User: What shape does this take?
Amino acid sequence: MKKLLMELAVLATAATVGGGHLLTPTTAQAKAKTTLKALPKRYRHTWYHYANGKLSTLKFSAKAISGRTYYAGEHHAVNYLAHIHAHKLTTTKFRRHFTWSTATTVRAHRSQWLNVRGWNQVMGDGDFYRVMTKTVGGKRVPVLSQAGGAGVWTAAHYYTSKHVAKQRGTKHFSGEVYYK
Assistant: This one.
């Protein structure tokens, strides 16, 4: 009995101190050895979002994301530029590159997201993007969802058409997890 108790104590210690990773699910980012070298083709469009009377844009190419975003209550736009560069996930020291970013894929809310982080970003979760096909006005259209935060909370939806973006505005889709 004493031997059995000792074995259980050793197993419990190993599981909580050194072997805890055996019980933790592995994310797609942890499995990857490097960040993405190029953005997936389904993202490569100019996307539009309409809110507060302003049209925001995001343009994805193979190696860059650029855009012009209006935030609630703001009259001027914020320009955004991220050049995607690959690096090993184990790398710890980088030269400073203010417009360089990295992209990885992660799973959240039963779907795959693109997580874009600044090259020198040491805190925060970055921006998350996902392309899904949704029904809008009886038609199936591609929709780019933008999310953020530790919970990957959806903040906005972008469309490939200015007309659809103005038509939809800030309407929500059922089944999404939104900022409150």
